[in-house]
Design goal:
The chain is an alpha/beta fold. It has one domain. The protein has five helices and five strands, in the order E-E-H-E-H-H-E-H-E-H. It has a five-stranded mixed beta sheet with strand order 1-2-3-4-5, sandwiched between helices. The longest helix is centred in the C-terminal third of the chain and has 18 residues. The radius of gyration is 15 Å and the shape is globular.
Length: 135
């Protein structure tokens, strides 16, 4: 997982086939710490997982769960929500339910949208709502 912050506050998650960071490449934890360090609201956008994508090991899931648990408050205060872009068709129900459960545990809203344009529009609304709520 790598974060593309070129269009911040829209943050695209780019999934890569390798599990560990390559030498000189920041870890996903480092990237998330940098993102949270901006101390500005953002929305996470990512493509719906495909059937042939890598499934995380139990250790990888445990590592992520620990990081997200430790950083839940910071994430809740800055992340306005997450958009799953379903440009290749609807997300299978088990994945959809799992994403919504993770979102609920982290205090984040997960939305499922058909394309990048819809994701950008919804993200703009979430960011506006977040800005109004933080005044």
């Amino acid at each position: 997982m790598m974060l593309n912050c070129d269009e911040f506050p829209l943050v695209y998650v780019e999934d890569h086939d390798h599990h560990a960071s390559a030498p000189g490449e920041p870890s996903w934890q480092d990237e998330l710490e940098t993102l949270l360090g901006r101390n500005r609201p953002f929305v996470i956008l990512f493509d719906a997982p495909q059937k042939d994508e890598h499934e995380e090991s139990q250790e990888e899931r445990r590592e992520k769960a620990i990081w997200f648990k430790r950083n839940r408050a910071r994430l809740m205060s800055l992340c306005a929500g997450a958009m799953v872009i379903e440009s290749n068709g609807p997300t299978p129900m088990p994945i959809r339910l799992a994403a919504q459960a993770v979102g609920k545990a982290l205090g984040l809203e997960f939305r499922f949208v058909g394309d990048d344009r819809a994701a950008r529009e919804a993200a703009t609304r979430l960011l506006s709502t977040k800005a109004l709520g933080s005044d």
